[in-house]
């Protein structure tokens, strides 16, 4: 059995749209965590789920925690606690999704059928262009201490969207996090869900079967930006940091990295461009098998967003 963990906090109509999207492409039970700061109630969301005939496909976590960028891991951990209370088997799998990703290609059930754990092994050994590495290495001390108690202490990052872990492994990781108060003691503000699960899985000797299946605009942006940064850093130019800051702004405003129908069709056909990173002393390729991508991020959380409508109405 597959369970799909998703933190949600706004726009019930968009939540329903995503639930329908997931049901179209993936057989599993969706577990929603509704943020403590949400503007609507669980009962209101349940009524909407029932109205759209999704009751058999969705569970709502009865507990709620505050969530914001940098603390999303709390929602996923709460969902893990909830799944344990309802007797989920250790051999079942949990997939992590975000509320702004969507699936676009059939075949995901077959892809996952014989796999146990899916995550990136993005080794973080020293500071680089990806700013969260510096936070993890320099400020999240309890994380590093607890990681060293379990294994080698090496930090391993992974995209969270489309990553999958055996439930028994997640329970073990959750137990470690609680034992050493890793989450509660950390004042570091960064996407910890992209570090904790994969790092502790690696520390426990787990090797992934594949990589996360969501094609993210984040990697499209970073791959180009960091190549430009590396060129600047290897040049004799003065004021390098100012130049890099300016280029970052220009590239961000250009929106070249945004998911488009063209990029979606590349995902469907298995023809996305090559992406590779050299950062922090390591070379990393996020998608080394182009035909193993099945979804995209980021899709705006707006029901009338043109990309959301394209995915919902145009892809069969």
Characterise this structure.
This is Glycosyltransferase. It comes from Candidatus Pantoea symbiotica. This protein has helices at 12-25, 42-51, 72-85, 108-112, 131-138, 141-150, 167-179, 182-185, 196-203, 217-233, 240-254, 261-269, 306-314; strands spanning 2-8, 29-34, 58-60, 93-96, 101-103, 122-124, 155-157, 163-166, 214-216, 277-279, 282-284, 295-297. It has two domains: 2-214, Spore Coat Polysaccharide Biosynthesis Protein SpsA, Chain A (Alpha-Beta Complex), CATH 3.90.550; 216-291, no CATH class. Helix 3 packs across helix 7. The protein has a five-stranded mixed β-sheet. The protein is built from 13 helices and twelve strands. With 316 residues, it is an alpha/beta fold. It is globular, with a radius of gyration of 19 Å. The longest helix has 17 residues, at 217-233.
Strand numbers in spatial order across the main sheet:
3-2-1-4-8
* Overall number of structural domains: 2
Q: Main sheet, how many strands, which sense, barrel?
A: 5 strands, mixed
Rg (CA only): 19 Å
Protein name: Glycosyltransferase
Describe the secondary structure blueprint for this structure.
Elements: E1 2-8, H1 12-25, E2 29-34, H2 42-51, E3 58-60, H3 72-85, E4 93-96, E5 101-103, H4 108-112, E6 122-124, H5 131-138, H6 141-150, E7 155-157, E8 163-166, H7 167-179, H8 182-185, H9 196-203, E9 214-216, H10 217-233, H11 240-254, H12 261-269, E10 277-279, E11 282-284, E12 295-297, H13 306-314
Parallel strand pairs: 1-2, 1-4, 2-3, 9-12
Antiparallel strand pairs: 4-8, 5-12, 6-7, 10-11
